Amino acid sequence: MKIVEYDETDAIKVWYVNQLALDFALTPEWAVHIRQSDPRLFPCLAIYAEEGGNILGQVGIFRLPMVSTQGREDVGGIWAVSTHPQHAGQGIATQLLEEAHMRMRQAGLRFSTLGTRRNRISYSLYRQHGYEDTNVWATALTRWETAHQPTRLRAQPLGADGYDFVEQVYTDIAKEYLGFAWRHTPFDRLRRVNLDDIWIMRENTTIVGYAFTQVRKSILAISNLLLRPRVDAAEAIAALATEIRTVYVQVNASRPCEINSFQRAGYHVAFPTWESFMVKPLLPDVSIGEARRLFGIGTDKFLISWLDVT
Q1: Which of 29, 31, 98, 158 is a plausible cystine mate for 198, CB 3.0–4.6 Å?
Q2: The CATH number fitting domain 138-270, selected from 3.40.630.30, 3.50.50.60, 3.10.20.30, 3.10.20.740
Q3: In the prediction, which pLDDT does 310 show?
């Protein structure tokens, strides 16, 4: 078995593995698109275990921009880890992860990160490789009547302002945070969000944040809530509930102040959820504790979104 890069292997066989293992259509055309639109990718896109002309497994590698107490610092990101079903349990993912970590070290990165779910088999694999769960995700649930409370804030649909305007709102607010508080622009993953699902939050004439929403099965689901520090999360959702009438409300949250806000407002809050953000030190002189201190993980200063993690 040998380890090769995307350009050294058969792109159609890459699609086979991704479709079989992840139900992910990494077609040659989609690979071209993400390479052209996402500067976070390593030049290799991904690495592959190959034997006898067959692809046995894959690990994708990102270089993710973050902000620490010391300024900008890129970290590694693992994505699309997959093993062909006929070759499961043979240590293929282990070899590919070790190769990916080596390449991250060679690129001068001190930490690797990934997003997964704690109820997946792969979660145990990542823990075996030194990744630790940092427990930043929470979900708040309530009936609309509880969410709909008096508020000083207003929620307005994005309208014709477009993605550039949303990116500027993000840039202005993210300056006050650590973690995933810097993005390459234009940010391609944002452009996969329907503009009709983006709402701008204001206090009088001042923009204080935004929310990504969807209404499905009588639930107003808020998947991404970005607010300036000291803006109350439950009050922001109350502004949305004023404009969008549903039976139930569901909000993804990560900052302790958001979680506390929803608890005070009477939401049912699950923390942590099955969603997991994991971090691995790549060098012997750094630790998970240092990652928490540098990026503010677990504090109100840490900014994270499903748009940014792998």
Answers
A1: 158
A2: 3.40.630.30
A3: 87
- Rounded-to-integer distance, Cα 221 and Cα 255, Å: 18
User: Who contacts 168 (Cβ-Cβ below 8 Å, separation ≥6)?
Assistant: none
Name the 3-class secondary structure at 282. coil
Between CA 48 and CA 14 the distance in angstroms is 9
* Residue 31, CA distances (Å) to 27, 47, 49 in order: 6, 13, 18
What distance lies between CA 40 and its chain's CA centroid?
Answer: 13
Kindly state the average pLDDT of the residues 134-160: 96
Backbone dihedral angles phi then psi of residue 171, each to the nearest 5 degrees: -60, -45
pLDDT band at residue 170 using 50, 70 and 90 as cut-offs:
very high
Q: How far is CA 87 from CA 20, 48, 51, 97, 125, in A?
A: 12, 13, 11, 16, 16
Over residues 34-57, the mean pLDDT reads 95
> 66-79: per-residue pLDDT in tens?
999 999 999 999 99
CB 208 within 8 A of CB 233: no
Instruction: List pLDDT tens digits, range 270-298.
Output: 999 999 999 999 999 999 999 999 999 99
3-state class (DSSP) for residue 271 = coil
User: Measuring CA to CA, how many Å separate 41 from each of 82, 104, 131?
Assistant: 17, 12, 20
Neighbours of 172 (CB within 10 A): 11
Q: What is the largest CA-CA distance in the chain?
A: 66
Domain boundaries, the chain: 2-136+274-303, 138-270
CA distance 114 to 279: 7
pLDDT at position 278 = 98
